[in-house]
Specification:
The structure is a single chain. By secondary structure, the protein is α+β, with helices and mostly antiparallel strands. The chain is built from 15 helices and twelve strands. Among the domains are: 64 residues, MutS, DNA mismatch repair protein, domain I (3-Layer(aba) Sandwich), CATH 3.40.1170; 57 residues, 5' to 3' exonuclease, C-terminal subdomain (DNA polymerase, domain 1, Orthogonal Bundle); 136 residues, Dna Ligase, domain 1. A hairpin with an 8-residue loop joins strand 2 and strand 3. The protein starts with 6 loop residues before the first strand and ends in a 10-residue tail after the last helix. The protein binds magnesium ion.
């Protein structure tokens, strides 16, 4: 236990696809896939549950998704619309607590420990939030409640879609024990295979195994993984009031070294992150790529710009350069790719440039115009070219 924190994890169900079904009621109950076109080696950003039944999932190449589910309606990403709804969801959270840590547009942790006196127990707050999102916005959220972040996130996923799961002290191990070891954060495909080969399939089997036997497989991660397996996680909810970074990352269903595929995932992440920067009136100086290989080794590659920016094309140029440099030197299969920015300052608050760069001014106007167009004509959302 991590003291008596009350953490809520809210995760919107098939967010981008659900928004499309909301905005085009004719799509309700139909297979909807949101993402880049297969002709341009696009990838799936989100799939409705109707499409998931055919095996479609996010980060899958669009060509493969369309083959699995040819009847699906394929739509482009409308980031501006999703971001707008994300802000409205965030505003609902703020009615209950300022302690909000957004993980992406459709997912956040809330620490409601200090809100209980005002609003009642965490269960009531979680219910209210879920109901308000549904009645005000017409969207379905899955909610998980527990005493820490790991368990809260696990809980929100246990009964998706439309889930509402609370993990208490007295049901914690009963919930954890039968789950596959891969449900623990940090246990990927390779580690799962190694654990399975050693006869360890479930979290319960893992916790009953002596530490020294696990160290051979888990190395210096052993204690950390055992802590999670027993439901211990000390990380605090980091409120976005003191945002130090904005990032987006994607874990792949299968490890991949396909350069074009990885580049298109990265482009999508850069677009999302730069959009969130502009929406928060922030600019960033440092960009970081996170690359995790199939052996669970995580590398980060950072680049610091001369001047802070919120421009998609500058961040994209630099992110692509950093990625291609890494790829040229040490290409290998990845299981996770992430893009983040840090060194944040409020737009226009820094030293700034003495003379505005006319090219940059032009790009700034272009980004603004694109944001506006996306907001207005979402269906035909424009994408930055690669
Ligand atoms: Mg979600």
């Amino acid at each position: 236990m991590t003291g008596n924190r009350h953490i809520i994890h809210v995760d919107m169900d098939a967010f981008y696809a659900s928004v499309e079904q909301l905005d085009q009621p004719g799509l309700a109950g139909k297979a909807v896939i949101v993402g880049g076109p297969s002709a341009q080696r696009g990838v799936v950003s989100a799939a409705s549950y109707e499409a998931r039944q055919f095996g479609v999932h996010s980060a899958m190449p669009m060509a493969q998704a369309v083959k699995l589910c040819p009847q699906a309606v394929v739509l482009p990403v409308r980031m501006a619309r999703y971001a707008d709804l994300s802000r409205q969801i965030h505003a609902i959270f703020q009615q209950y607590t300022p302690q909000i840590e957004p993980i992406s547009l459709d997912e956040a942790f809330l620490d409601v420990t200090d809100s209980l006196g005002l609003f009642g127990c965490a269960e009531k707050i979680g219910r209210d939030i879920k109901d308000t999102i549904k009645s005000n916005l017409g969207l379905v959220a899955s909610v998980g409640i527990a005493s820490n972040k790991f368990l809260a996130k696990l809980a929100s996923d246990l009964d998706k879609p439309d889930g509402f799961v609370i993990i208490y002290d007295n049901n914690r191990q009963a919930i954890l024990d039968p789950l596959p070891v891969s449900r623990i954060w940090g246990i990927g495909a390779v580690t799962t295979r190694a654990l399975n080969a050693a006869g360890l399939q479930t979290i319960g089997q893992l916790t009953r195994t002596p530490g020294h036997a696990l160290t051979r497989i888990l190395g210096n991660q052993t204690q950390h993984i055992l802590d999670l397996a027993e439901g211990r996680d000390d990380r605090a909810v980091e409120s976005d009031r003191d945002t130090k970074s904005i990032s987006s990352e994607q874990t792949f269903a299968a490890d991949t070294e396909d350069r074009e595929f990885l580049v298109s995932i990265l482009l999508h992440q850069v677009e999302e992150v730069s959009y969130r920067l502009r929406a928060s009136h922030l600019q960033a100086r440092t960009l970081t790529l996170k690359l995790r290989d199939s052996h669970f080794k995580t590398l980060t590659r950072s680049h610091t710009l001369d001047h802070p920016t919120d421009l998609t094309h500058i961040l994209w140029q630099e992110a692509q350069a950093v990625f291609l440099q890494w790829h040229a030197k040490s290409a290998r299969a990845l299981r996770l790719l992430g893009f983040g920015v840090s060194g944040l300052s409020v737009e226009g608050s820094g030293q700034g440039q003495l003379f505005a760069d006319p090219e940059e001014e032009k790009q700034k106007k272009l980004d603004k115009a694109l944001d506006a167009i996306r907001n207005r004509y979402g269906k035909d959302a424009l994408k930055h070219g690669q």
